[in-house]
Specification:
The complex is a heterodimer of chains A (about 500) and B (about 280). Chain A is α/β, with parallel strands linked by helices. Chain A folds into three domains: about 30 residues, no CATH class; about 210 residues, Alpha-Beta Barrel (Anaerobic Ribonucleotide-triphosphate Reductase Large Chain), CATH 3.20.70.20; about 200 residues, no CATH class. Helix content of chain A is about 45%, strand content about 15%. Chain A is built from 20 helices and 16 strands. Chain A has a seven-stranded mixed sheet. In chain A, helix 18 links the parallel strand 12 and strand 13. In chain A, helix 12 packs parallel to helix 16 and helix 15 packs across helix 16. Chain A is globular, with a radius of gyration of 22 Å. The model of chain A has no long low-confidence stretch (mean pLDDT about 95). Chain B folds into two domains: about 220 residues, Aldolase class I (TIM Barrel, Alpha-Beta Barrel); about 40 residues, 2-Layer Sandwich (Alpha-Beta Plaits), CATH 3.30.70.20. Helices cover about 30% and strands about 20% of the residues of chain B. The radius of gyration of chain B is 19 Å and the shape is globular. The chains are: A alpha/beta (about 500), B alpha/beta (about 280). At the A-B interface, helix 17 and helix 18 of A face strand 1 of B. Chain A: Pfam families: YjjI-like. Chain A: InterPro entries: Glycyl_radical_YjjI-like. Chain A: This is YjjI family glycine radical enzyme. Chain A: It comes from Alkaliphilus hydrothermalis.
Chain lengths: ~500, ~280
């Protein structure tokens, strides 16, 4: 059946989901990018994958508006004065969110929502009521799990209210990250962990590392670190599992196949970025640019990768667990050398319109998508192969320095941890101490579960599988990942 | 050099005191509780070699009269524990202070401290004193999980090195304690009082065992004792579970959640501030 017609007739899609789907079909009727044959071959083989960004980029994939500026100055285009109380504050933000584009058509970054609201908190009960409506409104209208809010690193009344309300609401949207540093109180961190054990958020970002790498940053979409007032033009990903199949041996991979693939992929990214910036008129016309909420000089683009574990295991023909990535010394070392080399080569490429990252594309450990059958996200150790938690942390943390635009691991705990949340805080402190950038956790009994980087409700996946419609457009991705990547079977972290 | 008999080390534990702790279980116990959940920790190995015959992974060898355990080839099937008729295990490591420290240094960034448990760890106090002196230098807190049957108030240096104790009070009645463990509870109670005065008593725990123990009396009187000593001492009530227990010694079942909750209420109403049910 014609793609447009099948979208129209799909019983599981809501009206809004159809509209977005049809826009994608329309975009893909034109071919405006100059894609060379070498790139096209890798695209067709699934080695280079643009995650359905579409044939003609007309908005950056991720936009990270400077909401602080908006709250101070209001918006001429939106005809909004700066807010003067909590109700005006949440109303203004909710209005702006509806006008922040992204790959999903929903905002992937909604601001450091605690510090944005804190100045307006006069009466805590009233603020709680406003924040509860604010968060509920977000969950029901920005119906996409890649919508992400930040809190922290400092303790605020607003931050605490947000954590308390989320614990009560158990919504999948928005995703939330606590920027965590030495300046974050243990008390706030424990409260965050208690909330995460109920509703799988917030995750913890290593504030010091992100600040060193990016300056004033936001955590966006899954766990992507990007400059505030900027964003990422595109995210294309390299499938290391499939790429490894092309190599005769390790040396061939390191010296020929990998450098060549990086060249092909950067060429493709350049094409996407140039069309967006030079031809789509986005940066020339958007009120976000005109009013200074974003600035092209804060932008970069993300060079994604996934399937490191499977690529390494293939190159070494590692069959037994003791030899595989995450366990075998040789495999772990090869994994490290591959990423080190990728970092070096990607950094050498002069990336157009990426002044936000000194003219470079930033490496990103991509979390996979619903159809990645048996290929692990980013540099993750495959589900089912996970070693004990101390070993897991030490092995994973080594990669984090190479990925300023995002990498992270997810740990599943059982209910015992609820009686001793400091246990998890100690683990997070240790992980950040050895250079881990991002840490996510949830509890076995949560309805909201972290799929790979984003959150979906189990109950929504069941509804979709039974043929029903669900508001959140990421549920379909979650369901695919559950089937293809065993995400519900992550190792349970008990005392070990 | 002084070596400790170590049954095992759990790098990350969420249930052996506050925060994330490395739990070090020492081998050997002076009690023989009817409901012991890990009877293989009671005695030291006699090197009889019976387990060598039954080990399917060939991880055990009899050499020069000693049973040797090869950790690398062990598959943790526990066949050796089933074979042993001495309440012991061939998998004990006799570790030096340095060897344990080496393990701890790898974990140091991730933990609040360590907890030493057993078996009964206070049977190896000279070793623990040496170990704790070094652990203090790492800035880690030291918790000790004990049956408190050794007069700890006499062990001045040991006491000064430990941050907090977690004490089992298996029964508050001497007769019942003797029936259950083989010894009375006079020393245990004396220890509890000393530790509470020194503000070193983090937690008292009692296992609730239907039909075998007078649980109502134990909780009633223990909670009153805690309330008079310091109501902030945690009182942990542990549900009896049959996992790992020698079935021929005890005939009982787990208490219901309702019963646990009821006993918890008793403890609260007697003035305890923190009652934990597990």
């Amino acid at each position: 059946m014609n793609e447009a017609l099948s979208t129209i007739k799909d019983k599981t899609l809501t009206y809004q989901q159809k509209l977005i789907g049809l826009a994608r079909v329309a975009e893909n009727t034109i071919n405006v990018l100059k894609i060379d044959d070498e790139v096209q071959v890798y695209r067709e083989e699934g080695i280079i994958c643009d995650l359905f960004e579409g044939n003609a980029p007309y908005r950056p994939r991720y936009i990270v508006p400077n909401y602080e500026k908006f709250m101070e100055e209001g918006s001429q285009f939106l005809k909004l004065q700066p807010p003067t109380n909590i109700w005006e504050a949440v109303n203004s933000l909710l209005i702006l969110y509806k006008h922040v584009p992204s790959i999903t058509s929903f905002p992937v970054y909604i601001g450091n929502i605690d510090t944005l609201l804190e100045p307006f908190i006069k009466d805590e009960n009233e603020a709680r009521q406003a924040i509860k409506l604010f968060l509920t409104h977000i969950d029901r209208t920005l119906t996409d799990s890649f919508c992400h809010g930040n809190i922290g690193p400092h303790d605020t009344k607003a931050g605490r209210i947000i954590l308390e309300v989320e614990k009560e609401l158990e919504n999948a949207i928005p995703n939330i990250t606590l920027k965590y540093s030495d300046e974050t109180s243990d008390d706030l961190a424990i409260k965050a962990i208690e909330t995460a054990l109920v509703t799988a958020k917030p995750s913890f970002a290593n504030h010091q590392i992100f600040t060193n790498d990016l300056g004033n940053y936001g955590i966006v979409s899954c766990y992507n670190g990007l400059k505030i007032g900027g964003g990422s033009h595109t995210l294309v990903r390299l499938n290391l599992s499939a790429l490894a199949q092309k190599a005769q041996d390790e040396k061939h991979f390191m010296e020929t196949i990998l450098p060549d693939a990086i060249k092909r992929m950067t060429r493709y990214m350049d094409q996407r970025v140039k069309f967006l910036v030079e031809e789509s008129e986005f940066f020339q016309t958007s009120f976000l640019v005109k009013e200074g909420l974003i600035d092209i000089d804060n932008f970069t683009a993300m060079f994604g990768m996934f399937g490191l574990a499977e690529g390494v295991n293939h190159l070494l023909q590692a069959k037994d667990l003791k030899d595989r990535f995450g366990h075998g010394e040789k495999a772990n070392q090869l994994g490290y050398r591959i990423i080190e080399k990728m970092y070096e080569l990607v950094s050498q490429h002069p990336a157009p319109y990426c002044n936000g990252a000194d003219g470079k594309y930033l490496l990103h450990a991509q979390v996979g998508t619903d159809f990645d059958h048996g290929i692990s996200p980013g540099c993750r150790i495959p589900i089912g192969d996970e070693p004990s938690i101390p070993q897991h942390l030490m092995q994973s943390a080594k990669f984090h320095e190479f990925f300023p635009s995002g990498i992270g691991d997810i740990f599943k705990f059982d209910e015992t941890a609820k009686g001793n949340p400091k246990y998890i805080l100690d683990i997070i402190k240790g992980a950040f101490n050895i250079g881990m950038r991002y840490f996510s956790l949830y509890c076995t009994d949560c309805d909201v579960v972290r799929i790979t980087g984003y959150l979906v409700k189990r109950s929504d996946m069941e509804k979709l599988e039974a043929g029903g419609q669900v508001l959140n457009d990421a549920v379909v991705l979650g369901l695919g990942a559950v089937k293809n990547q065993k995400v519900l079977d992550r190792k349970l972290r008990k005392d070990e | 050099m002084n070596r400790g008999a170590v049954n095992r080390i759990i790098p990350f534990s969420s249930v052996d005191g506050p925060g994330n702790r490395t739990a070090i279980f020492l081998q050997g116990c002076n009690l023989n509780c009817l409901y012991c959940h890990n009877p293989e920790t009671i005695n030291q190995c006699s090197d009889c070699g019976r387990c060598v015959e039954t080990c399917p992974a060939e991880a055990l060898k009899h050499q020069a009269g000693k049973v040797q355990w090869n950790e690398e080839s062990c598959t943790h099937c526990h066949e050796c524990l089933k074979t042993c008729n001495l309440n012991s295990t061939p998998r004990v490591k006799f570790m030096t202070v340095e060897e344990i420290l080496e393990e701890l240094k790898k974990l140091q960034a991730f933990i609040s401290g360590i907890t030493v448990s057993g078996g009964e760890c206070t049977l190896q106090i000279p070793f623990l004193v040496e170990l704790f002196r070094e652990i203090k230098k790492l800035g880690l807190s030291i918790y000790v999980d004990t049956n408190a049957s050794v007069p700890l108030w006499k062990e001045k240096e040991f006491l000064s090195l430990v941050d907090q104790f977690m004490v089992d009070l298996k029964s508050i009645d001497s007769e019942e304690h003797k029936m259950l463990t083989g010894v009375d509870c006079d020393v245990v109670l004396e220890n509890i009082k000393h530790l509470a005065i020194r503000d070193q008593l983090y937690e008292i725990r009692t296992v609730i065992v239907p039909e075998v123990l007078d649980n109502q009396r134990n909780v009633e009187q223990t909670s009153k004792l805690i309330a008079t000593l310091n109501p902030d001492i945690r009182y942990k009530l542990i549900k009896y579970r049959s996992l790992g227990v020698r079935g021929d010694l005890i005939n009982t079942s787990s208490p219901t959640d309702e019963e646990m909750k009821r006993l918890g209420e008793v403890a609260y109403s007697n003035g305890c501030h923190q009652v934990i049910l597990i």
